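step 4 of 6: structure.
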Amino acid sequence: MSVPVLSIQKMSHYFGGLKAVSDFTFDVPEGVIYGLIGPNGSGKTTTFNLVTGIYTPTEGKILFQGEEIVGEKPYKIVHKGIARTFQNLRIFANLTVMDNIRVARHFTTKSGVFASFLRLPSFIKETEQVREECMELIKLMNLEHRAYDVAKNLPYGELRRLEVARALATHPKLILLDEPAAGMNPKETEDLMKLVRRVRDEFKVTIFLIEHHMKFVTGICERVKVIDFGETIAEGKPEDVVKDVKVLEAYLGRKAVVC
Amino acid sequence: MDKFKLPKMLISGAIFYAVVQILILTGVLNGYFVVIINRSLLFVILACTLNLINGITGQFSLGHMGFAAVGAYVSGTITTIIFKLSPHVFGDNLIFIAAIIIGGIAAAVVGFLIGFPSLRLKGDYLAIVTLGFGEIIRTILNNIAYVGGPRGLLGIPKFSNFTVIFLFTFFTMVLLRNLVCSSHGRAMLSIRENELASELAGVDTTKYKVLGFVVGAFFAGIAGGLLAHLLQIAHPTQYGFYASSILLIMVYAGGMGSLTGSMIAAFSLTFLTEGLRVGIDWLRDSVGIPIGTEWTMVIYALLLIFIMLFKTEGFMGMRESKILIIEEKRV
């Protein structure tokens, strides 16, 4: 068996005395769509923040393609190939859609500061190449009619797609999606599921997502991990996990299960 | 093939230069106005580079004039020494330009030394560090006898004239525009928009904050050097907090993140200062109201309060004149 894309080993994280993440050990195999679910405050977003380097875990290891990434700066982790979106959108509101995506493509460009000061031919050529590449991403996300609009003027659903496009522009191997379907209507959710699958197949990326929307999770994820209060309560295929007594307890309360 | 078009900046720069030169030669603009125009152009450099730090990279620097002081004193000292030794040295203009650029580099080095440790700070903390830096520079200059101490550096040869200042301003604006419209410029803009998202889009945010600071300091140093060679004196009080706060008002009045706005504000506020000076003198002498020119600062403070209350985004907001944008093909 090949090395898992992401391997988390005995990872714990405390906020003062609060144990936000407790002794997590799990692997995200290459090419799957992996779901992390749990009630509010169960430590899902904290897990994402730990993987992307925003927080450093109190204990434990995080391996990305077999390489330890704990303690690396967030942008270095992005360079290695982990991209993410945010639960509450973090779009560059005053930049155009095109520029939003081009920022994420920036670290792969070679032109130095002096080349851009003087607009050397190599710089102009590279800029043109980046622009065409980003346009491809914009088309994939059905945003071409918006390419040169300022991002703050876009409706919510399009901003969500823009964030995915921005994450893809970093050429990731693993994408973390933090509640991608939040605030979407059933039709949009359906389209998003198709889009996520398409992204996985076309870009050969692994997808690790957080979601509350059960239909979305059971419809798209191939493996699911359920957590509550920082503890793992179930892991496995989505259809098995939703029948698990502990999972029902966490979501509906103990009494509901007993009755 | 596209038809070859003259760049818009070149055309507008040439028109500006030609109009001012014609007005000077025909005697419409006297020496006094030429000085004001020269000062305005220098303030264009200073305000636009402060805008690069405050408006485009989204940091908050209060000590921008400190960099200008470094440029002024370094280049002023170099030319004073050389031309005192041999007043008619060969290639004096080249020596002058080299001295100005060395002044800019010295300011950039200082900018790096200040920026590298302090740009880890955010918001108010960074403002306090830069404010302190500006005061430290002023105090140091006040206490070095070699550069005149509180008397100021005197006897700097006069090299700056309208043509020299115009050319330096023009090239500074071209380079700034090229930077802002490049991938590196977008990385800076993204830090202003959302630092965390920028970091997670792979931008080394510390590096780009320092870069903005260093580039801003370099050009501020150049402007300081030109100013010293225009006034033939560099004095510590020219570069104090008062001057830095005027730059800040220019950036806010013109619009954070708009180089066009900073240019317009640099011109209008420089002319406003002169207008107020004349107006206040008139009020004192003819009407008999006992006020002095220090009241210009009251007007400025009111202007800043007015902007903060009623026009937060400034005159131009984040918009940019077409002259300062590099248009792209849109397919």
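step 5 of 6: annotate
 - Residues 8-238 of chain B form one domain.
 - The interface with chain A takes residues 175, 178-179, 182-187, 189-190, 193-194, 196-205, 211, 215, 257, 318, 328-331 of chain B (CB under 8 Å).
step 6 of 6: archive
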